[in-house]
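Long-time lurker. I teach an intro course on protein structure, and each term I like to show students one example going from raw sequence to a predicted 3D structure in token notation. This year I'd like something fresh instead of my usual example. Would anyone be willing to generate the tokens for the chain below so I can use it in lecture? Attribution to the forum is fine with me.
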Amino acid sequence: MMLAVLPGMEEENGESFQPVITLLDQLSDIAGPPRLLRVAMYITAQSSQWRLGALNYLLRRLPRFDSREALQVCLGSDPMLVVGVIHGGLLDSNVLVQRNTLELLVVHFPLHHRFVSFQVSVYFLV
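-- Reply from a regular --
Happy to contribute to a lecture. Here you go:
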């Protein structure tokens, strides 16, 4: 379902943007916000075709995390999911995707908090 509406999220000033956000919010109420956020994270990490729309959704609906515990409650215990989102977004050829990925990193994952372990950080750098 989410893949079907993500093209409407690509252009923030487009006429379909707000109706799609409303639809995804209703879906989130049914499925639960953590589940829909994880789906958006997986899409962002795995598919460059849908990455911009998924990032736009995450920038608007992902809470700001202040601890590793808050991150785990919302996104589960897989730190590689966050690493995959950042890695995929920064390597994307679309400059807007790169910019949105950096915004996601700075706003929602403050660098002064340790969200991933040292081993995951080394994996990300290699």
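Some talking points for your students: The radius of gyration is 14 Å. The chain is about 70% helix and 0% strand.
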